[in-house]
TrEMBL record:
Name of the protein this chain belongs to: Copper-containing nitrite reductase
Sequence ranges assigned to domain Cytochrome c in this UniProt record: 382-470
CDD domains reported in the protein's UniProt record: CuRO_1_CuNIR, CuRO_2_CuNIR
Cofactor: Cu(2+); Cu(+)
Binding-site residues for Cu cation, renumbered to this chain: 125, 130, 165-166, 174, 179, 320
Keywords of the record: Copper, Heme, Iron, Metal-binding, Oxidoreductase, Repeat
GO terms of molecular function: copper ion binding; electron transfer activity; heme binding; nitrite reductase (NO-forming) activity
A Pfam short name: Cu-oxidase_3
Species of the source: Mangrovimonas yunxiaonensis
Top-rank EC class of the record's enzyme: oxidoreductase
Quaternary structure note: Homotrimer.
InterPro entries: Cu-oxidase-like_N (IPR011707), Cupredoxin (IPR008972), Cyt_c-like_dom (IPR009056), Cyt_c-like_dom_sf (IPR036909), Cytochrome_c-type_DH (IPR051459), NO2-reductase_Cu (IPR001287)
EC number in record: 1.7.2.1
């Protein structure tokens, strides 16, 4: 007699396992389905008008409030504003700001959305909210001409942080002009409380003139198609989150950033220099990642990042595609005040000079010659204005905003005896670079300033600006004076 085949015996338990697995999977799917069904069944009581805020502020958390009928009144405004020093741009906005007003809801809310297109506007617009379950995210029901208002309603089914944007053709152009913002749908009971919350949104801009070119700059369709951004910024303009506009916190506080990316093209590698994100709600959804250095924020996407600030200082927010930060504007600041904690961060303990290749001026290899700027300054006021722009782009990083310098590293230009004593020597420092020991206001510096790649016109303007600021001598520097030093 032949032995029965072995495999037959092991088939039974395998079938059982398979059946069990199917049961487990199907019950999971079932659970997810009922969960979704549930949020659409959440009853709403009462009616309230939504608080809308301009960036970097966010409305009050929903806390434990019940789901409501929430009235949102959003006004579209086309307006001219500043991109950076001397550069103007016509922005198209939701609520008068880029990004648009922050909308804060909770799951189960019935949002009655009023979209108003200001009569002074030139174009029709609409809105696509990624938090909407429905055709076009609301776009189809909200197309509105200048001087009109459209109303539509939706129920928030999924908690999370969502982008909204205009979706009127040409869609790319409406988004590129600033028509985006964030809508938060908090879960039942609200997000866990934190000490500080802020609203930040990245966007890329395309102008006819190149970065820094003065005047009112029109949108450049070809550059947008080619994805060659002239500006990449947080909150609509180059300095929207720096200096006096910086966001703030105190040592020991927890900070939550609602970070979005309007695009239209670029993906953001969002990073805070000197901080680690304790938590990231990845892509603005439920998944929480911990201990993250840099988080990706897709165009048309968002993330919630949270961290505790432990030491004081200025923490720089960047898109870590780093030329965007230092050359195109994607740079913000978080100022933290409070007690030092030397266990966590010691501060500088020692600095010496390190010149492995011997002393001498380091020079970056350059292929392109310095280009003389096309429009020379016509008078002293223009020299000051253009000079300030050069200063903020070139000298600021080392000599600081008020020319105060950085102790032991970069000498001050404010009330600098070294500067005021000898104008040719100052010109030479800028056009040839400067190294070796110098004494400025009684303090010794022994470091290297590299040659600055500026046209004679720009050197004249920036030094005139420096000489006529912060208590300096009032010397005026001309292009001829710069050329004379160059030709020595
Ligand atoms: Cu639009």
């Amino acid at each position: 007699m032949r032995k029965p085949k072995q495999p037959n015996q092991s088939k039974m338990p395998m079938l059982l396992v398979a059946l069990l697995l199917m049961f487990v999977i199907s019950s999971c799917v079932e659970e997810k389905k009922t969960e979704l069904a549930d949020t659409s069944e959440i009853p709403v009581s009462l009616e309230m008008t939504a608080e809308l805020t301009a960036p970097p502020n966010v409305p009050t958390p929903v806390g434990r409030r019940k789901a409501k009928k929430l009235i949102v009144e959003m006004e579209i405004i086309e307006k001219e504003s500043e991109m950076t020093d001397g550069v103007r741009y016509v922005y198209w906005t939701f609520g008068g700001t880029v990004p648009g007003s922050f909308i804060r809801t909770r799951v189960g809310d019935e949002v009655e959305f009023h979209l108003q297109n200001h009569p002074d506007n030139k174009l029709p617009h609409n809105i696509d909210l990624h938090a909407v379950t429905g055709p076009g995210g609301g776009a189809e029901s909200s197309f509105v001409a200048p001087g009109h208002e459209k109303v539509f309603s939706f129920k928030t089914l999924n908690p999370g942080l969502y982008v909204y944007h205009c979706a009127t053709a040409p869609v790319g152009m409406h988004i590129a002009n600033g028509m985006y913002g964030l809508i938060l749908v908090e879960p039942e009971g609200g997000l866990p409380p934190v000490d500080k919350e802020y609203y930040i949104m990245q966007g890329d801009f395309y102008t006819k003139g190149k970065n820094g070119e003065r005047g009112l700059q029109p949108f450049d369709m070809q550059k947008a198609v080619d994805e060659h951004a002239d500006y990449v910024v947080f909150n609509g303009a180059v300095n929207a989150l720096t200096g006096d506009n910086a966001i703030t916190a105190n040592v020991g506080e927890t900070v939550r950033l609602f970070v979005g990316n309007g695009g239209p093209n670029l993906v953001s590698s969002f990073h805070v220099i000197g901080e680690i994100f304790d938590k990231v709600y990845v892509e603005g959804g439920d998944l929480v990642n911990e201990n993250v250095q840099t988080t990706i924020i897709p165009a048309g996407g968002a993330a919630i990042v949270e961290f505790r600030v432990d030491v004081p200082g200025t923490f720089i927010l960047v898109d870590h595609s780093i030329f965007r930060a230092f050359n195109k504007g994607a740079l913000g600041m978080l100022n933290v005040q409070g007690e030092e904690n030397e266990k966590i961060y010691s501060g500088e303990q020692y600095e010496g000079i390190y010149l492995p290749e011997g002393p001498g001026i380091q020079e970056m290899p350059t292929t392109n010659e310095i280009v003389e700027s096309e429009i020379p300054a016509q008078n002293f006021e223009e020299q000051m204005e253009f000079g300030k722009q050069v200063y903020m782009q070139t000298c600021f990083a080392c000599h600081q905003g008020e020319g105060q310098g950085v102790p032991n590293a970069f000498p001050p230009l404010a009330k600098s005896d070294y500067l005021n004593a000898d104008v040719d020597r100052a010109i030479s420092a800028v056009v040839n670079g400067l190294t070796g020991e110098i004494t400025v206001n009684g303090e010794k510096y022994n470091s290297v300033m590299t040659r600055q790649m500026l046209s004679s016109e720009e050197v004249a303007n920036v030094l005139t600006y420096v000489y006529n600021s912060w208590g300096n001598s009032g010397q005026v520097v001309t292009k001829q004076m710069v050329d004379k030093v160059k030709n020595k």
